[in-house]
Design brief:
With about 200 residues, the protein is an alpha+beta fold. It has four helices and ten strands, in the order αββαββββαββαββ. A hairpin with a 3-residue loop joins strand 1 and strand 2.
Amino acid sequence: MTAFFTPCWKKRLLEAAGILLLAFAASLALAGSIEPRQAALVPDEQGLALSAEFAIDLGPRLEEAVGRGVPLFFRFEFTFERRRWYWADEHIAGRVLEYKLAYQPLSRQYRLSLGSLHQNFATLEEALRALARVARLHVVDRASLIAGETYRVAVRLSLDHSQLPKPLQVDALADRDWRIEAKTKKWEFVYSPDAFK
């Protein structure tokens, strides 16, 4: 009689584990993400400029929140460090940009702001497309570069949870739907003045 119930019990246990796994995968799918697609340093008149592109998925909860008038703040970070074997890496340059994405109910447009600069978009997708691109942003002066030196570069775009309204900050801590997983792109860059002529 024990042999009869054991396979049935194992089957039900496997079914329950499968249901839990599907529920876990569905909860992960609801959370948003920001992933860097590409990033490169290009020469400009003063030194180096950065061009980068990100894939942004807010997730349904944050899309609904911004559509209801909750402003979202994003933080773009760039770091440029010289590798040192005898000490911590030397910080050469860095840049931080803070964006605000908000829905304007009177004009029925999404507004993307960077400091005092604003741009309006008809749809959320268009606003996110503009937010996802950084084009030829000057980041490093030529005077701080050494020929043949290896530098570590990192770029990241993330949602700034600290600027959400206070009740939503608590939700962001407890509820995964309010969080966006932001990945950092890191690479090494060797400066060669001849390559930029």
